[in-house]
Amino acid sequence: MIKKSQSSSADTIIFDLEDSVAAHKKGSARETVFLALEAAARPGPELAVRINPPSEARALAEDDLDMILPSRQLQAIVVPKVEHEEDVRLIVEKAKALRDGSTLDEVGPLALVLSVESAASLLRMPRIVETIREGLGQDPFSGELASNATKTPVAQVVALLFASEDYCASTGILRTRDRKSLLFPRAHMATIAKAYNLSAIDMVCIDYKDQDYLVEEAQEAKQLGYDGKQAIHPVQVDAIQDTFNPTQEAVDRAATILHLYEHASQGENRGAYGLQEKGGGMTMIDRPMLLQASAVVDKARKAGMRIPEGKELEQQHKQQ
């Protein structure tokens, strides 16, 4: 499985030291994961490790960190069952002790993905994020370095992840196929993530053989504001990426909006303009629409999609 993961088209590969590892195999699993990190071909997917939860098994979590943090190829840690600031602070302090300056220069700050697995975690998450960021010298809401900060933080919170099965187990919620029972916590977590300039990662689709259902679930997550989704099987990756990546039509439209807005604001001194749509309608384009178009183009660029420019855009606009 580790060898196959190197050829995956997933954005991030997560090596798991938590639930998938039997208690008597924890030590050997750590060694296997460290070797997998060191042997991973670069460039490639982001390399992450899900450690044991500091909130429940602090000693195991510390042993995990002692083993994997020295790896120069480790880029992210998924922190399960985050309940308090101390669960995250443990990782930050360990990273300060075990990651030297050259590692930080090579790969940047260690990315922390915080897993929401209980109602208490969901409600406390704003305070947790703010406290950790303040301790790292960052603005508590945006995550940007504070004006008085003197150096790049060794780690930073980058995303929240919704762990549906553990959330159901801790709250008594019954997960139904229509997902209505999880609509509120999923939407609430996505809202918190966006309020703190974090990515929101949706729950796993446990029926990995039903591609139509996976796409339906991913489309719903996208509508709720999620940026991506966990996959538990390689066959899920392409469908998830296809769903969360913008369509080529959306990319073309967004690029056109940016191009025409630049001409309207600079050449014609206008803050808004009307965009002739393919269907014949006219859409008013102003700053909020511009921000949405920029987000689409940025996502397309990260996905390696074709982004039309210059004369191609002008020709498309003339044809409309």
Automatic annotation (TrEMBL):
Signal sequence range: none
InterPro entries to which the protein is assigned, alphabetical: Aldolase/citrate-lyase_domain, Citrate_lyase_beta/mcl1/mcl2, Pyrv/PenolPyrv_kinase-like_dom, Pyrv_kinase-like_dom_sf
Pfam family, one: HpcH_HpaI
Domain (HpcH/HpaI aldolase/citrate lyase): residue spans on this chain: 1-234
Keyword Transferase: no
Annotated keywords: Magnesium, Metal-binding
Any one of the GO BP annotations: oxaloacetate metabolic process
A Gene Ontology molecular function term of the record: catalytic activity
Listed Gene3D superfamilies: Phosphoenolpyruvate-binding domains
Binding-site residues for Mg(2+), renumbered to this chain: E117, D166
Binding residues annotated for substrate, in chain numbering: R50, E117
Listed cofactors: Mg(2+)
Domain of life assignment: Eukaryota
Name of the protein this chain belongs to: HpcH/HpaI aldolase/citrate lyase domain-containing protein
Natural source organism: Pseudozyma hubeiensis (strain SY62)
